[in-house]
Design brief:
Elements lengths: L1 E5 L3 H13 L5 E5 L3 H10 L4 E2 L3 H7 L2 E4 L6 H8 L8 E4 L6 H5 L5 E6 L10 E6 L5 H11 L4 E4 L5 H30 L3 H20 L5 H8 L5 H13 L2 H11 L9
């Protein structure tokens, strides 16, 4: 299986590193980046990555072509690789701005759209997955089996991509901010060193994640197990509940209407 990546910026580079580290058998990783030094930096640390000299040569070489460029650059790349995108190949886009149907109108290959997460850097976390009309059940099984080496693929409806990506892709930043605020408050109120507060919170969230995923705990189970009647946790929750009321509703409303980088020039 040959995985090719056009674009090795933040997310593209992360995916390249993740697939190399995954140790998947019989998988070869190739990459092309318009700014050569960005790719060279990745290859220094991952010498098994094959460097390609153009997007078209990468498309000819690869079975799965991951399109990891800015929305405004997508059409330029598609025009360059179009003749190499045969029906047996897969085009995988990480751009939410381009719909599956729009991508299928540009190439004859099978089309998949994904929303990766920084958690793939740790070979973990959710990879949101959406399939175009040409992907068969066998194609889906093949793609998901490949991606399980670095993530937990979850198939969603394309119309749900914004709110789902807030949870899985933006979510790490949102929760990191909340946890950072929690640790900073402990420094101010308890006088402990910042490094110690950060370490305690990081290992707490690591253990909590294992309880959710490996042990199958639900949110309410954790709350009820820790929060005893009349106890300190219950007192703290009484402060949190009104303070958190509507906070994430406002966050999701803001991201829903945000355009910013999610535009394309066609």
């Amino acid at each position: 299986m040959r995985l090719g990546f056009v674009g090795t910026g933040s997310m593209g580079g992360m995916l390249v590193r993740a697939f190399v580290r995954s140790g998947l058998p019989d998988v070869e990783v190739a990459a092309y980046n318009r700014t050569a030094w960005k790719l060279d930096r990745i290859i220094v640390e991952n010498p098994n990555v094959r460097k390609m000299d153009s997007a078209s040569s990468l498309a000819k070489f690869s079975d799965f072509i991951f399109l990891c460029v800015k929305p405004a650059d997508v059409l330029t790349v598609l025009k360059e690789i179009r003749t190499s995108m045969s029906p047996d190949k897969f085009l995988i886009s990480i751009n939410s701005a381009w719909s599956l149907s729009e991508l299928e109108s540009e190439v004859s290959s099978k089309v998949i759209k994904i929303i990766p997460s920084i958690t793939q850097e740790a070979l973990s976390g959710v990879m949101l997955t959406m399939y175009g009309s040409r992907a068969t059940p066998t194609d889906r099984q093949l793609f998901e089996a490949t991606c399980r080496g670095i993530s937990f693929p979850v198939v969603i409806k394309e119309n749900d991509v914004r709110v789902c990506s807030d949870l899985t892709s933006c979510g790490p930043a949102f929760l990191a901010f909340v946890l950072q605020s929690f640790a900073s408050a402990a420094v101010r109120q308890g006088g402990i060193p910042p490094q110690q507060a950060d370490q305690l919170v990081k290992y707490m969230i690591y253990g909590l994640g294992k309880l959710f995923v490996k042990e199958g705990y639900e949110f309410e189970e954790i709350i009820s197990r820790v929060s005893l009647p009349g106890g300190v946790t219950e007192a703290g929750l009484k402060v949190l509940k009104p303070a958190m009321e509507g906070v994430f509703d406002d966050v999701l409303t803001t991201t829903k209407h945000f355009q910013g980088q999610h535009t394309k020039d066609k």
